[in-house]
Amino acid sequence: MTTHGAERAALDGGRQPMPRRLVPVVALLFLAPWAAECSWGGFAGTDMLGVVVVLAPMYGGAAVLIREAARRTGGGWPMIVLLAAGFGVLQAGLVDQSLFNPDYLADTEFAELSAADRTRVPVLGISAQQAISFVGNHVALTICAPIAIVESYLAPTRRLRPWLRVPGLVVVAVLYLLGSLLVFADDSGRKGFLASPGQLVGAAAVVLALVVLAALPRWRRRPLPAPAGAPRPTRPGLLVLLVYLGVSMLSGWIGVAVSVVVVAALVWMLARWSGHADWGQRQVLASAAGALVGAAVLAYLVPPYSPASPTQALISDVIVSLLAIAMLTGAYARVRRHESVPAYPG
User: Lowest-pLDDT range, 63-77, 109-123, 137-151?
Assistant: First the structure.
């Protein structure tokens, strides 16, 4: 999409009634924290609503701001993925500082299961395995999957349009800052830990580098699409699902090395496929579904943060599965309804 096209889309989006523009914003605000913390079984069913409400300003605010930045500038999915990675480092490195805190999971059910110390890098004070897990899940579950799902519910003419005007963006930015401050101030999460100045500067430098990379003009200069040849939606969906589950099961330095190679290959393959003229929203949704279904499957294999009986854990995991199925089924039905519209270029 050209810069002129993005500007015209912004003007068109601004003419829509406010309630119509706010529905997807609210949906993304609440879907992002659910996908980030609940979709993989992190919390019991009775706690999900509270978790979503408390974390919506931070996780949801970030998702909305990243989506608006990409759609307003025409940066598309490359920009979304890079900004999502920046958010992952910002969140884990500067806000809750889980990237550096060796005791971050000490009082949870993951304390006995974590193999993070086996891949700890003494100079940096991080676990390579946890860095991949924390940042990767923020990219896949907190940002990319929720954006793809919410946009799938919209008509094709609205998927690339901004949802908010400047005042709305300011409100969401303030919500994000307040939500982040709330998490940072919660000492029960950080357990009194504060990263060293060197760690904070290093994390901030990585975030800045990712933001600068995301802002490069090259993402707004799209080459002409290749001839038809994109795979059916099931193919990228299954590929993302297998990679998500496989990476989640790996541990140790060998697991870290394999994860980096496999994830890089996945990103390359999706980027290659998306360059074809017949790559559409169904493929985008299938890729998001692969991550969300992978998280729902993982929920049956890992415990929640807090102790729960086997029955409580199973009920919560079933709730997660049903919500994911309902959400994805509805999104797929909406895309099918509009599938006669020309292929999705984002």
Answer: 109-123
